[in-house]
Amino acid sequence: MENRQQWGSRYGFIMAAVGSAVGLGNIWRFPAVAYENGGGAFFLPYLFALLTAGIPILILEFTIGHKYRGSAPLSFFRISKKAEWLGWWQVLISFVICTYYAVIISWAVKYTIYSVGTQWGAKPDKFLFGKVLKVSETPGDIGSLVPGVVIPLLFVWAVTLFVLYRGVSRGIEKLNKIFIPTLVIMFLIIVIRALSLDGAADGLNAFFKPNWDKILDGKVWVAAYGQIFFSLSIGFAIMLTYSSYLPKKSDINNNAFITGFANSGFELLAGIGVFAALGFMAKQQGVPIDQVVSSGIGLAFVVFPSIINEFPGWNGLFGILFFLSLVFAGMTSLISIVETFVAGVQDKFNISRTKAVLAGGLTATVISLLFATNGGLYLLDIVDYFINNFGVALAGLVEIILMAWFFKGLTGLQKHANEISDFRTGAWWKFCLAILTPLVLGYMMFDNIRQNLAKNYEGYPTSLIVFAGVVVAAVVILVAVLLPLKRWKANANAEDKKGV
Ligand code: PHE
Ligand code: NA
């Protein structure tokens, strides 16, 4: 433990935590979620979810990582031998996410290059699905590897694994200290430019116009909690892993607030930029805004190229700024996801960081190739849907219930955090984690399952969904049950006996 790696500075840790939080979700998920769930009125449930679930869970994960100083499986093992499986489950979710997250970043890398001379042409959708991804006609038909995606994908992995190999302060911290400020500057330029476009005001009006009727709709609150969970990267051991590298004397509570508000600030900025641009496009095409609102892959790789096409000049530069922002936001998140399972493997098998990066990283690289096939897009869509709806929120729910009601409870953790933090948390912290958030998340899971039983996601064939579900469940059970059976190597056990 003496030679456990550490962050070089508080600023570096915050940049890394913000780097993990600020990702594709801020840019392409938040704007549409807010718009569809009440516009300006959405900020009420969103802020409520941030303050009662997002930041309290961030504090929880920072505290566990700082106190128990291990990867998720090791930290939970140190809390109780019976909790190790939770760590592996979370590590596994991170592993799955990274295999397709890397693929999306590789598209953004390609599109940064395509921006030069707006190579996507007049029909960006045909270009994306036909020329770039070469998507197969039928879902479920995997086809073969698409070389045009495989090459940038290998590039993304090479950079990621190199940064992780360099280590916590010389790799992860250094990269985030460059990428995050650069990302903010690039994105500010985009937003300011977008605001000056004709029609931007209509876009902002549509985005901020409050629809107060929606406030009473349970779905809106569920959407707010879902966005906060995904957006803050909580519930699957990422923030826990990063905080395990904090020096002994570190603030926890204030760092969590800074991370939470920085992420939301970037989300708001993205909402303004995206809707200003959408307002411009709607005006150009003479259609109402709600016809051009979209999110995810469609927004980034189809709608934005169309908007860039219609730009009054400097199109290429605007494209480069936009797609490079996606690359930067994505890379800093990807690195945090991969670090989570690299750390788990390293602790469990007592091997060097280099070996863990190679073993874990190459396995992830090979699996990610599945998403670089002709059928990769369908696969990505399904996996992403189930990860978001069941993986992340469910793991977070189980985490807070176990930590609040079983094992050692929240009191000791709160004491630990309060003793070293700039300011103390009060009874509200325990109330949110033990009662309020479990109730909301519990309802959310219940509602999700009900909806999925009623209707297949996106009308995909039942066989495909059942197959995907069975594979995922089998792997989860295998990993979460088998790995805890393996004893920790001497070093971890010895540390445990010292009563960390
Ligand atoms: N929080 C990131 C976002 O908002 C997404 C993410 C998911 C990051 C999983 C890390 C791990 O886009
Ligand atoms: Na985010």
What does this entry look like structurally?
This protein has 500 residues and is mainly α. 74% of the residues lie in helices and 0% in strands. It binds phenylalanine and sodium ion. The site of phenylalanine has 14 residues, from α1, α2, α10 and α14.
Which ions and ligands are bound to the chains? Answer: phenylalanine, sodium ion
Class of secondary structure makeup: mainly alpha
Radius of gyration: 22 Å
Separate helix tally:
20
Counted beta strands = 0
Largest sheet, strands/sense/barrel: none
Topology of helices and strands:
Elements lengths: L9 H12 L2 H13 L6 H26 L3 H8 L4 H31 L9 H9 L14 H20 L1 H28 L4 H9 L9 H14 L6 H6 L9 H33 L10 H14 L5 H35 L3 H16 L7 H30 L4 H11 L6 H28 L7 H21 L7 H8 L3
The structure holds phenylalanine and sodium ion.
The site of sodium ion has 7 residues, from α2.
